[in-house]
Design brief:
Layout lengths: L2 H14 L14 E7 L2 E7 L6 E7 L12 H25 L3 H13 L4 H6 L1
């Protein structure tokens, strides 16, 4: 793997990464390269705020820009597609995670009804 490509990818990751749990930024100290082979790299990112870990798998691919049909319209289309994907990922993360408040509220409601989690799972 080309060192400059790897360095650029990691620097960009550090600049743009936000913890999916608490939206905190990370620094170089929070990034650990788990493994690299060929053009693939596996990275573990630890959040300094909430201590959650995210795994990133990336691949560096050489692109010959001289032979590509790149113009402003194509670049804007790619940008729009990436932004749309990013929004979908963020929405999915928000909808999939259970908040502490939801667990506390569920526990309170179960106590009011004199039930427990086992009762919920058996019905």
């Amino acid at each position: 793997m080309n060192f400059q490509a790897l360095k650029g990818m990691i620097n960009n990751l550090i600049k743009t990464f936000k913890c999916p749990e608490c939206d905190s930024s990370v620094s170089e100290q929070n990034v650990e390269i788990i493994g690299a082979a060929g053009s693939n790299i596996n990275i573990d990112i630890g959040c300094p705020k909430c201590q959650k870990h995210s795994m990133v798998r990336a691949e560096v691919m050489p692109i010959d820009f001289k032979n590509l049909n790149i113009n402003k319209k194509n670049l804007n289309s790619i940008k729009d597609n990436l932004m749309g994907l990013q929004n979908k990922i963020e929405q999915r993360k928000k909808s999939e995670s259970i908040k502490d408040e939801e667990i506390v509220k569920l526990n309170q409601n179960l106590k009011k009804q004199k039930l427990n989690v086992k009762d919920l799972l058996e019905t």
